Amino acid sequence: MVSSELISTLRGLSRADKLHVMQILISELAQQEMDLIKSNQSYPVWSPYDAVEAANTMLKVLQAAQTQDHA
User: Fold this and answer.
1) How far is Cα of residue 55 from the mean position of the Cα atoms in its chain?
2) pLDDT score for 35
3) What are the tens digits of pLDDT across the range 15-64?
4) If DSSP codes are grouped into helix, strand and coil, which group holds residue 29?
5) Using alpha carbons only, what angle is made at residue 60 by residues 54 and 62, rounded to the nearest 5 degrees?
6) Sequence ranges of the domains in the chain
7) Rounded to an integer, what is the distance from CA 25 to the centroid of its chain?
8) Coil/strand/helix, residue 41
9) Does the structure show a pLDDT above 80 at 1?
10) Residue 7's Cα: distance from chain center in Å?
């Protein structure tokens, strides 16, 4: 959690210093994102291909909605 002292200090900075702090934080966040994905590894990706059960469920929902619209 961010302390009120830190917030107060940040508010007292000049515009240029605030932008510099933002650049540092954004750079660190970007690096953390890159650390989540390891090279030379495979990651599963879901695809709707062969998702017959999901398609049937969606069709039932759409049919029920269409029935309600015409009632």
Assistant:
1) 25
2) 82
3) 999 999 999 999 999 999 888 888 888 988 888 788 899 889 999 999 99
4) helix
5) 100
6) 1-38
7) 17
8) coil
9) no
10) 25
The Cα-based distances of 20 to 14, 24, 29, 56, 59 in angstroms read 10, 6, 14, 53, 52
**CA neighbours within 13 Å on the CB side: how many for 46?**
3
Alpha carbons 62 and 64: distance in angstroms, whole number: 5
- Give the chain's radius of gyration (CA, Å): 25
CA 22 to chain centre: 20
pTM above 0.70, yes or no: no
The amino acid occupying position 17 is D
Between CA 71 and CA 69 the distance in angstroms is: 6
Token readout for 13 is 């900075």
Given a contact cutoff of 8 angstroms between Cβ atoms, the answer to whether 48 and 54 are in contact is yes
CA atoms within a 13 Å half-sphere pointing along the CA-CB vector of 45: 4
